[in-house]
Amino acid sequence: MDFRFQVNLGGIIDLLSNHTYSSPDVYIRELLQNGVDAIVARNYLEPEHRGEIKIELSSQDSEASSFLLFRDNGIGLTEDEIHLFLATIGETSKRDGWSLQPTDFLGQFGIGLLTCFVVSDEIVVVTRSAKDSSKTIEWRGRADGTYSLKVLEEDIEPGTEVRLHCKSGREDYFVAQTVYRLARHYGGLLPFPIEFTDKHGTILVNEARPPWKEAHIDPVYERYLYLEYGRATFAIDFFDYVPLRSAVGDVEGVAFVLPFSPSLATRKTHRVYLKNMLLSEQTEGLLPDWAFFVKCVVNANDLRPTASRESFYEDEKLAATREALGQQLRQYVIHLAEQNPQRLQKLIRLHLLSIKALAVDDEAFFRIFVNWLPFETNMGTMTLTEYMKNNEVVRFVTDLDQFRQTARIAASQSLCVINAAYTYDAELIQKLPDIFRNVRLAIVDSHSLTHSFEYLTLAEQDAVSGFMEIANQVLEPFKCTAEIRAFSPGELPALYNASSEAQLRRSIATTKEITDSFWAELLDEVDGGLDQDAFAQLCFNYRNPVVYKIARMRDETLLRLSIQMLYVQAILLSHRPLNAKEMAVLNDGLLGFIDWGADAVEGWIQ
Amino acid sequence: MNENREQVYELLTRSVEAGDGDEQVSLREEAVRLADLGGDLQLQYFAREVYVRACVFGGAAENALVAFSWLLAQFDKNPGKFDEWAILWKYKWIVGTIYNFPQVSKARIYEMLDDLSERSLRAGYGLRAVYNHRYRLEKFWDNREKAVEYFNKMEELPEDGLSNCPVCVKDERVSFSIYSGNDSRALELAKPLLSGGEKCATVPHRTYANLLLPLVRLGQQKQALLYHRRGYPLISSNKNFLDRIADHLILLTLTENFSNAVRLVEKHYVWTETNRDVLCRFRFFRAAWFLFEMLAEAPVVSKESLRLNLPWSFPLYSESRHYDPVQLASWFKEQADEIARRFDERNETDFFVRTLAETPALKELRAPFPLADVE
What we know:
The complex is a heterodimer of chains A (606) and B (375). With 606 residues, chain A is an alpha+beta fold. Chain A is 43% helix and 20% strand. In chain B, helix 2 packs antiparallel against helix 3, helix 7 packs antiparallel against helix 8 and helix 13 runs parallel beside helix 16.
């Protein structure tokens, strides 16, 4: 009998190939899924039944006329069921594309079958149900929306056979290598044999079991098996592996430790199987956020996939699974710390960020890893425990600009300062008092470090007081104050420091030089809300012979000029660009000095 | 010259890997400094463009503003040299945070919106984005009538190149429903944002936070705590979300998960020292005040029994770590009061002072529900 679908099949095919699944590849996945479901259903009736799937590719002279046979020995369909699944297809079309989630066996069967229209213009299904002495039925569906149904004379073994004819333009999907690769890709973990046959003979698609399904006796061989499996799956020589298991979600598998730091974009995506069928290679959300140092292969039997079947639905079960898997990774790292410090060192070099992220959230973990995590200081890299051995106060800075400024001062004072500008560093340092009762912390900046410089004697202070008064006047328009101390190295005449707030005020002043009046006024308003005492600081070095001289200079014009020049020079030494005002000071100052020098040496007076 | 360029690019590459937050801001600030030293305008502009983005998404709004004014000035000075869409897009960010600075006058904010409006039209875009910000601004001053008017005006206009991403658009509708007093509608609208499929840099981060109080009002404490479980990890490491932390803090207080609430204060107080966004600070101070106010009333909590791990930079820092909840409450209240006064003075309303006065009434919503019972 010939029929016509009650729905626009073309529309559905278009929907399936363009909106629901990622590529035509998935027709193999859908055929496999249908086969698996049918076998599972038959096992339910006949527990002893051994399921198997056979895929046969017949290529004729040209690939265009090749066809694919896909046979399972599952439950098969009765005539009534075929009518039901056709009805389901009708239902399907009424939903929008994203909710094409089959809810039952027949629904899945129908939708799975429809995806085959993406590669074939005609689908032939020959099926016989295992339920009773039912007949063998042939269903022929065509992409133009017509189909026929007939009862065949001869009986086949219970099960279902799907026959696809390669559609023009889809030849790539009927190449033996492709079919074999896809079958292995999606069905590699299936617990019953999948055979693939082409003109060269028959091979088993899923011959090897994943390593977590094996009972391991020899740890060396176990390691070898796991790492080989990782190499075969991802073409990566992994650093290590961690077997994973969670009762919640019924998950098992393995986490491979990456031999490199993953980029942000590739972090946290894993290859995940759902009931042994590949769900996705880009699954997110399976592991805690900090666990971006591993790449997993896992099979989950009890998590809910999203409609597009490419990740899991974010529910409580997934959260509990994530927690359980996270615990195992945490245990692994702790175990390394106890048993294999050398490998741990390597792991830290590779995945410092991941480990710091965990330490921030987990005090017990931090307690162990405080001995291992390296921090950057102006005296080289060291762990916090090493640092605390030699320093009573933990001094740290929280941004790179401050570290650059303080590093040069601190070194000359033999002070060790930690650069805590990197993610998690400052947070971890702030947690030190939770672990070590008596530790003292200090956020330092270049400004506060100058307090450790040597003060001048009262007599010396007297001698330079006039100089300091003028210096403060000269520097005021630059939102800068003057200090004088004695410090090393003596060659350095003055040191320019700006706290981050002072630095922001400097940026405002610099930016105002180029903006129009509206924005300049706006910036003034913003500046008005900042700490008005946040000035930069120019700290003169009393040990410097030039400063010593200038501080006693009587000629006020020359004194002002010298202070301005020292100010500009100190800014340049701090590797900051000069703003227009400072540039003008530099130019005028240089010319002034040349003029003055010429007068003094040559005595040219016009 | 080339070496300078390479250094800038290296810092920028590292900054991308760092993700949103302090480290990214710091790395890009260095990149700007180096680019300025090199003096190549293109590179200076580029470095500042990405710096502005880092600041906006990393809780450094004032630095964003300063760098943006530089960009806009260069954009205007060099017609045709820089991308117009890109500067307008950033302008939206700036407009979206400018009123959080109480030192900026009301007139100037309106002038800024007019300027953005004119520039958008001149560039061939519609006013959808501008209306979106006019809505937010009126909402901020508590000018309800106008706010609703602008929201509706926005919804009437088609999307264009300057409108927000589709995910943010949906999130805006969620907030609007809450603002209009329709909590259940907000929950309905939020559904697609919370199922994991649709996200961007700030959604569903802020969506979760937004829904906490509506859920409590609807008596769905368990669901609220579940959203806390899911939403908090998204915002816990970026000080840009300080204001959203406040929402979580209030939820934990109302459900009497006091030790979890105290943990949030311990962990995030320090952000109030570095995040200069005054509105964010206000919301955190208010929530912390509310927590300690409740603790002060709780019979089991006394001066001796409250132990808090606050950083030594905290003005009431106690080496013994014991704090009197009454003192803490009043300190946080003072901070909030001071900000409320500044906002109201500028805004010419009493909205912020009133908000604070009404805060203790939140207690009526209290309904204990142990977080531990939420799987």
